[in-house]
Each structure stands twice: as structure tokens, then as C-alpha cells.
Amino acid sequence: MGAIFPSPDRCQRCNEQLMPDNIVWLELNNKTNLYSDPAKVHIAEEDSQGSFTFGATCAKHVLKNGGICQYTYSMRRPAERTTDLRKVKAGFQFTWGYITGFWEVGEYAIVQYEPYNRTGEQMYHTWVQGKDTSEGYMSLDAALASCIAYKYEGITHHGDAYFMRAMLA
Ligand SMILES: [Zn+2]
Questions:
Q1: What is the pLDDT of residues 8-41, one digit of tens each?
Q2: CB within 5 A of ion ligand 1: which residues?
Q3: 3-class SS of residue 157
Q4: How far, in Å, from the CA of 15 to the mean position of ligand 1?
Q5: In degrees rounded to 5, what are phi and psi of residue 21?
Q6: Are 83 and 65 in contact, with CB atoms under 8 Å apart?
Q7: Euclidean distance between the first and final Cα of the chain, in Å?
Q8: What torsion do the CA atoms of 26, 28, 34, 39 make, to the nearest 10 degrees?
């Protein structure tokens, strides 16, 4: 509980997924192709391409550079992705998809995520006693049951499969 997760918004300059408290909006002038701080510069409505998200550091770079966003797409660095629970809780990108939910109960942790390139689908990834089980489930119920079974039966657990079958019968 209490972990902060990246928003789906990405930095326009480096393509990093942004933490909610690290988002700066800059407005793009489509005549000059320059970004500016909408609180300080007024862009006529017909010249505005709208506002875009930047990380605080990149926003500073862009403004210092006269509003030029000098990173091209090919220069963008891929953000680190991980299944390390401590890093996931610290806001790193998750290996398997965009995080849409997180629960930590006792020795169990479950991340709900939308797999990259499979929009709309939701999956659940589990940790037991801080250890990545490397397992993904299609429902929160199945993920929870698997955590308990994993704890008592280890990696070759199947008590959860019997349990789920009994519940759903
Ligand atoms: Zn950035």
C-alpha cells in the first residue's frame, strides 16, 4: 500500500513513463514548433497544437533551449523494465505491461496490468514473500489463490487449481 505508480503519460522528450508528481505540461506552437510554459506564454488558439507532458527535468531542458524539443524518436532511450517488487513499488516500469492496480496483503503482492500491445486486457502478476513467482493470471481471484498455494506448495503448486475448480463448479 502507499506505492505511487507511473501515470500512462509519457515524456514528450525522452519517452519515459512519468510519475504523477513529475508531470509538466508544455504547450506546442504549431507555427514555430516550439514548446512554452502555458502559465507564462499565451499562444493564440489557432496556433496551438495543445499541451503535452514532460518530465520536470526534460521540461527544464526544453525551456532552456528556447522551446526546442531536441530529442528525436530514434534518440529516445528505452525505460528500464523490471519485475523486482521493490523497484516496481518505487515506480519503475513493469516488465509485462502498464500497471493498473496493486495490492499487498501480508506476504503476498499482486500487480494488475494491461499487457503491452494488448489494450483492454487485464492480467495479474504475483509475488510471495517478496519473491517474483513469474506467474500471470487472468483474474484477481486466481492470482490470490495461487499466492497461497505457492507459499505452501512451492513453485509446482496445484492446490489453487483444485480450489478454483471447486469454487467455479
Ligand atoms: Zn523526459
A1: 788 888 877 888 888 999 999 988 889 999 999 9
A2: 11, 13-14, 55, 58
A3: coil
A4: 6
A5: -90, 10
A6: no
A7: 33
A8: -40
